[in-house]
Amino acid sequence: MVSPQLYRRAIPAAARITRWTARDGWPLRRFDWPAEGRARGRMLFEGGRGDIFEKYLEAFAHWHAQGWSITSFDWRGQGGSGRLTPDPHVGHVDDFQLYVDDFRDFWAGWVAEGAGPHVVLGHSMGGHLLLRAMVEGAATPDAAVLVAPMLGLHSPLGWTLGERLAGVLGGVGNSARPAWRGNERPASTETRQALLTHDQERYADEIFWQSSKPELLLGPPSWRWVIEAFGSTRRLRDDSRLKTLSVPILLLVADDDKLVSPKAAYKTAAKLPDARIVRFGKEAAHELLREVDAVRNRVIGEIDIFLSARAQG
């Protein structure tokens, strides 16, 4: 068996990178890695804000070796799916509903392409959007895994004041302008790597892809994105449909996460009728799937156990 580590900086030969067209004609970059022989099932993975699917090739290789067919796509406005503002380094979207509409349509076509079980995995913003899509009836997977899900932003002012301040600052002038200059959050004294992972080599993998394909690089979010993120996460936390969601869900949460709110994840999970929570301490930063081996191996193990129990063919 080929080591999954070999895929960290190389697209698998059997994988395909194509384009999928949204309902409004917008092209989204798509990744497919079909299982060899009889597939165990089909897995749809969605990354976070500014992510590209290349960052998760090592994890994909692990699940592919177990018989899963892997699919992913870059959200519109980032990665290889174009930009929604003239500045290519600003992560902008007018309305998070665009993300959900894209996912709804993609899911409908993807499910019809092959037999299940069909499972979804989402990191950070991807976790938020997957849960929102399930709540709104846009997708009904056999099981779902939310990794460091963005169910609330990490704000020193708290969710309410943070949302109000974003509305004031972002509501003046062009809301597509960058909300801050760099890093993953404003006024941070920590390096970008420290916010994401303790593993220097895996962090370097991302820099490798950004250097190899500079068109995939994204910088800070726009003020409109920040406003939408506050509003969308608030509405999802308060959505009464969480209590009737029948999909089994695994949530992996880093208590020391400096980008998304662990408290929001726990509050949301408490409303889900079929949810399991796995917590990580100071040993883990935001990107759990790209952490040091001791953390990452536990993350992968928990996901494997969950899928074996809850997503059988």
Automatic annotation (TrEMBL):
<dbReference type="InterPro" id="IPR022742">
    <property type="entry name" value="Hydrolase_4"/>
</dbReference>
<protein>
    <submittedName>
        <fullName>Lysophospholipase</fullName>
    </submittedName>
</protein>
<dbReference type="InterPro" id="IPR029058">
    <property type="entry name" value="AB_hydrolase_fold"/>
</dbReference>
<dbReference type="Pfam" id="PF12146">
    <property type="entry name" value="Hydrolase_4"/>
</dbReference>
<dbReference type="InterPro" id="IPR051044">
    <property type="entry name" value="MAG_DAG_Lipase"/>
</dbReference>
<feature type="domain" description="Serine aminopeptidase S33">
    <location>
        <begin position="39"/>
        <end position="293"/>
    </location>
</feature>
